[in-house]
Amino acid sequence: MALKIDRELVLASSSPSRKMLLEQAGVSFEVVVSGVDETVPASLSPAQTVELLAERKGKAVLPLRPDKPIIAADSVVSIDGLILGKPKDDQEAKATLRRLSGRTHQIFTGVCLLANGREEVFHQSTKVTFYPLTEEEIADYVALGESQGRAGAYGIEGIGVVLVQSIEGDYSNIVGLPVAETLRRLRKLLQA
């Protein structure tokens, strides 16, 4: 099938969401976590941030698996010109959800592809609009534990889907990897 990639890939990420997306796409892969430092200059835009981090992750894994195609990715949530990281605790998760309530934010995912001695780095952005949320809805959602470890304090592939009013762009990008674009670009890299 033209959509398939017939080689085993390396996913340079421990993200369960990225693993799920590649499994749904029928891709054979192994996970190799980079463990790189994720600090970046505050002056970088969200797009520059995710591209830099994805490239850093991919290049850290390349010496470990030099003969396999590598996919590395990083995602951030941005609103009001700020990058919203993963909440440190429930209070921070609630504050993040209040900020997103009734408004549109963007998810940026940077992807680094390494194959056949070549590299391609790109990003994709998707706009997400939340319904206005009550304090009770915010507290109930945070109490579920789904906010922890998630940029923007929610997971659209889980119960967080009920917070979302509309999406403009690629759904899988919100989950953590623009999987269709990633696999199309990787196929071209493997054929070149």
TrEMBL record:
Upper taxonomic lineage: Bacteria, Bacillati, Bacillota, Clostridia, Eubacteriales
The Swiss-Prot or TrEMBL record lists the needed cofactor(s) as: a divalent metal cation
Q: Which GO terms describe its cellular component?
A: cytoplasm
- Report the sequence similarity comment from the record: Belongs to the Maf family.
Q: What is this protein called?
A: Nucleoside triphosphate pyrophosphatase
Where found in the cell?
A: Cytoplasm
Organism encoding this protein: Candidatus Acutalibacter pullicola
Q: Which residues form the active site?
A: 74
Question: Keywords of this protein's UniProt record, alphabetized?
Answer: Cytoplasm, Hydrolase, Nucleotide metabolism
Please indicate if the UniProt record lists Protein transport as a keyword.
Answer: no
Where is it predominantly found? cytoplasm
According to the UniProt entry, what is the EC number of this protein?
3.6.1.9
Q: Domain of life here?
A: Bacteria
